[in-house]
Design a protein that fits this description.
elongated; 3 helices; two-stranded antiparallel sheet; alpha+beta
């Protein structure tokens, strides 16, 4: 099995598939601007300015010993949304999406807020 594939409950799932499911669920939560570093604007800003590109994956996932998933998701969020409430909503959305699509339990979801987006005035 390649390092790009996770072995979960007797099946292989590409990390990119899990990342897409997580990103899609997280981006639907009100207050999430984008999955950190995965939107077109972030890429263009990094190319045109001295702002560095993210050096870590926006979504990381590992399989725990009990065949559950442990996920880390990195977000850019809009100013004005309480971080703890936003993180709880992201955890709930991601867990439900992974359970519905892959059919495995998520035992841990770390939400990292890596960027704060301010509204234009």
């Amino acid at each position: 099995m390649s390092t790009n594939e996770l072995s979960i409950a007797g099946m292989g799932v590409a990390r990119s598939v899990v990342s897409q499911i997580v990103a899609n669920a997280a981006e639907k939560v009100e207050g999430v601007a984008s999955i950190y570093g995965q939107d077109i604007a972030s890429g263009l800003i990094a190319m045109l300015t001295s702002k560095p590109q993210p050096t870590t994956d926006a979504v990381e996932c590992e399989v725990a010993a009990d065949d559950s998933l442990e996920i880390t998701v990195r977000l850019a969020v809009f100013f004005g949304y309480p971080f703890t409430k936003l993180a709880a909503e992201v955890r709930e959305a991601v867990s439900a999406a992974v359970d519905a699509q892959i059919g495995v339990r998520v035992s841990k979801i770390d939400v990292c807020i890596d960027e704060l987006v301010f509204p234009k005035e």
